[in-house]
Amino acid sequence: PEYNGFKLGLGTSSIYGADIQHIYELALAGKFPRGKGTLRGEQVIDRYIDDIAARVGKVRRTLKVVIDCGNGAGALVAPKLFPKLGIKPRYLFCESDGTFPNHHPDPTVPKNLDALIAAVKQDQADIGIAFDGDADRIGVIDHTGEIIWGDYLLIIYARDALARTGKGQSIVFDVKASQALPETIEKAGGIPVMWKTGHSLIEEKMHQTHAPVAGEMSGHMFFAEGYYGFDDALYGAARLLRIVAESGKTVRDLLADVPRFVSTPEIRLDCPDDKKFGIVEEAQKYFGAKYKVNTVDGARVLFGDGWGLIRASNTQPVLVMRFEARTKEQLEKIQSEMQGWLRSKSVKV
To answer: Nearest CA to 84 among 65, 62, 61, 56?
Structure first.
């Protein structure tokens, strides 16, 4: 309940950055337009469910599914939506309750998926699906109880879209994604576009590049092909179930040929707002003199058999790091070098 608020949009586009700061300044100044308008109430849930059902259709293979609504907004929709697709899931925490009595509804935190993993194993289910509080982010568990993170989930959506609608299209993803993602997109005939982390930034880049799908490590999955071009975990879940059913494979089988790397979770280091961007600029220069560095969002330093990332959080006084390599030894070497440099800049690691 301590996290609250609302998103602003103009038509189908998000408002962010300088535009949302301008609205903030207008609000502080009390510069509000005056006039008369109209107010109309609509019951939209049934129409929304019918729209998704019409787009996805009946799932053609019987799947055993567990869905964790996390006591969030998805609880208002999921029990009505999935039966229309021919799916009869087992539901967890499917009562909307903003105090979130069972676990925080963030599918990027492994402990929040413990109940879902246990239920998938207990039921010998084909797949487990979790939603965040407002059901725009999705988490997925395969039949073994393994978490499928956002970058690998995007691979499934991307290969499906490219196979159905044609190669040569862009697929947009954020700078924290595994190197397996761009490598697999290229093999599937797509054009990988690495972009800045952030819901609105990824969505805008998807529209600019006319990408059929885009996604973030955070679980935001955006669908321009076959949908409205925004992130929707309920639609994303329905689309995933269709892909799995039509393939005749498990989620794990769909990713069997994708390279697996050794990686760290996201590491967050306290750093004052007035210093974090300067440190990132220094990192770009320092590591850029020795290695190839992607500077689209921070410094993603390429070490040959792995990479390390330093970026400034857009919303908190924090530096964000992540590391990936082909071996544990290489991972430790990359992590040691980059964190050692940060210590030399008086950042507590």
So the answer is: 56
Q: Which two tokens stand for residue 248?
A: 């005749």
Pair (86, 235) in one structural domain:
yes
Rounded to an integer, the average pLDDT of 281-307 is 97
* Residues 251 and 297 occupy one common structural domain: no
SS3 45: helix
- Mapping DSSP onto H, E and C, the string for 54-121 reads HHHCCCCCCCCEEEECCCCHHHHCHHHHHHHCCCCCEEECCCCCCCCCCCCCCCCCHHHHHHHHHHHH
Question: Structurally, how many domains does the chain consist of?
Answer: 2
Closest residue by Cα to residue 297 from 216, 185, 214, 180:
216
Q: CATH number, domain at 289?
A: 3.30.310.50
Structure tokens at 304: 């040959």
Is residue 81 located within the same domain as residue 138?
yes
pLDDT of res. 1: 62
Last residue of a domain, one of 244, 260, 276: 260
User: 56: domain range?
Assistant: 44-260
Alpha-carbon gap, residue 312 to 331, rounded angstroms: 21
Residue 78 in contact with residue 45, Cβ under 8 Å?
A: no
Looking at the fold, whether 218 and 270 belong to one and the same domain comes out as no
In a domain, 96, yes or no: yes
For the chain, the average pLDDT equals 96
Residue-wise pLDDT for 30-88, tens only, equals 988 889 999 999 999 999 999 999 999 999 899 999 999 999 999 999 999 999 999 99
- As to burial, measured by CB atoms within 10 angstroms (0-12 exposed, 13-18 middle, 19+ buried), residue 264 is middle
Query: Mean of the pLDDT values across residues 219-244?
Result: 98
